[in-house]
Amino acid sequence: MESNGVDEQMKLVEGAAGYVLEDVPHFSDYIHDLPTYPNPLQSNPAYSVVRQYFVDEDDTVPQKIVVHKDTPRGTHFRRAGPRQKVYFKPADVRACIVTCGGLCPGLNTVIREIVCGLHFMYGVTEVIGVDCGFRGFYSKNTVTLTPKVVSDIHKRGGTILGTSRGGHETSKIVDNIQDREINQVYIIGGDGTQKGASAIYKEIRRRGLKVAVAGIPKTIDNDIPVIDKSFGFDTAVEEAQRAINAAHVEATSVENGIGLVKLMGRYSGFIAMYATLASRDVDCCLIPESPFYLEGKGGLYEFIAKRLRENGHMVIVIAEGAGQDLLAESIEQQDASGNKLLKDVGLWMSIKIKEYFAKQSKMDITLKYIDPTYMIRAIPANASDNVYSTLLAQSAVHGAMAGYTGFISGLVNGRHTYIPLNRITERQNKVVITDRMWARMLSSTNQPSFMNPPKGTTELAD
Ligand SMILES: Nc1ncnc2c1ncn2[C@@H]1O[C@H](COP(=O)(O)OP(=O)(O)OP(=O)(O)O)[C@@H](O)[C@H]1O
Ligand SMILES: O=P(O)(O)OC[C@H]1O[C@](O)(CO)[C@@H](O)[C@@H]1O
Ligand SMILES: [Mg+2]
Fold this sequence. Notes:
The record marks 192 as: Important for substrate specificity. The active site is at residue 221. Mean pLDDT is 93; it is low at 1-7 and 458-462. The protein folds into two domains: 11-230 and 382-426, Rossmann fold (3-Layer(aba) Sandwich), CATH 3.40.50; 233-378, Phosphofructokinase domain (Rossmann fold). The protein contains 13 helices and 20 strands. The longest helix is centred in the middle third of the chain and has 20 residues, at 233-252. The protein is α/β, with parallel strands linked by helices. Helices cover 32% and strands 19% of the residues. The chain has helices at residues 107-122, 136-139, 147-150, 170-179, 191-206, 233-252, 270-279, 300-311, 345-360, 383-401, 421-425, 436-445, 458-461, and strands at 2-3, 11-14, 19-23, 37-38, 60-62, 74-79, 85-86, 95-99, 127-130, 142-144, 184-189, 212-217, 257-263, 284-286, 313-319, 333-334, 340-341, 366-370, 407-412, 415-420. The strands form four sheets. Strands 1, 2, 3, 5, 6, 8, 9, 10, 11, 12, 19 and 20 form a twelve-stranded mixed sheet that branches. The radius of gyration is 24 Å and the shape is elongated.
């Protein structure tokens, strides 16, 4: 295999039969003659007995696992896990952890397992937590993190470090990293955060510092590409069921009852789609990727009337980013990170539906609007997300100790991998409405496809 490095962000290795490894940066790419040390896990009583515990340097994971006999082998990512050699003496490591962006179940588990992984697997004792996101590097104090401090934080929602949006000033952050003599930076956050991590990595590399930057992607919206799913997503979907159940109970307890539930999902409707598929009680699921309209043939009002005539009740799930184009207010607002601030489509829709049926006077409806938005992300991770978060954190620790940098720890086709930061920040993951999953969802609800809005439909311009 021959290295074909394109620039510091694209490190491609090509092999026979169209094999491509999208490799992650390593200290040795820009600092020469660094000493290495045997991995302390070799003498760890828990791990020393494991056969083949260390990952073979040549192990890679394919991005596409469905292939045809003549297709090229395609893109691969480096397999995560401990290496025989490490690039840090444990006593020299000074690590820091920061959490940014919105909350997500599992954040505390990731923090806990970075601290415990460094401590128990590698004998690293100096770990600090940065208070309240990126801006905490230069405007806040740090907290000392030990296994004792983090021992039961995985049972709590939120992040013990605090989080924030905005406030990313790359050179001030890197100055601070240098001043504090930090040499491993663990950055937990969504797409915005990982763009910030990428900027920090580039500046560190420009200054020629031996500082590893490891990202752990976090997003309940599941909007980060390449990875199978984000930690916390399953917990959020599970919690969303409780709101949908309540909406169903309310709707079935009255004549012509409608339960309307708004779920998170700014640009991607994964939570709404999976919660709908899981529940089987939902009659209509509306997401940002699939435009809809209210009036006329094939519209939402017509469908609601039909379902109420057939079943006497219905449940609608709407992702917060759906139908934003239909709302009247026009001034677009942004949060501190530059994300679009959404209008409350759930409240708007509940008013529109009530007004429509009141005007029609053919059917008396009772609509209950449930907005569990923050409840689905402010809870602790469920069991499977706890295990998943633990493995992501441990992979990040193994990668940083092995001298990798500018990478995220992510699951690809069920295998833990290291993915270059630029690969996950170049686009957002979205529900593809021409894929089978959306078709499965449509066939479970039997809702209209909203593909053919009648000409002159007022809601489209309303
Ligand atoms: N392009 C960028 N370059 C540098 N920093 C960025 C960039 N975009 C966002 N950030 C920083 O990353 C942090 C988090 O970003 P943001 O608020 O968008 O959340 P996020 O990580 O995308 O998580 P969520 O999915 O919850 O929105 C903020 O401090 C923000 O300033
Ligand atoms: O109100 P906040 O915390 O700024 O964030 C809300 C956004 O964060 C997310 O939960 C993503 O983390 C989105 O679903 C939501 O739009
Ligand atoms: Mg984001």
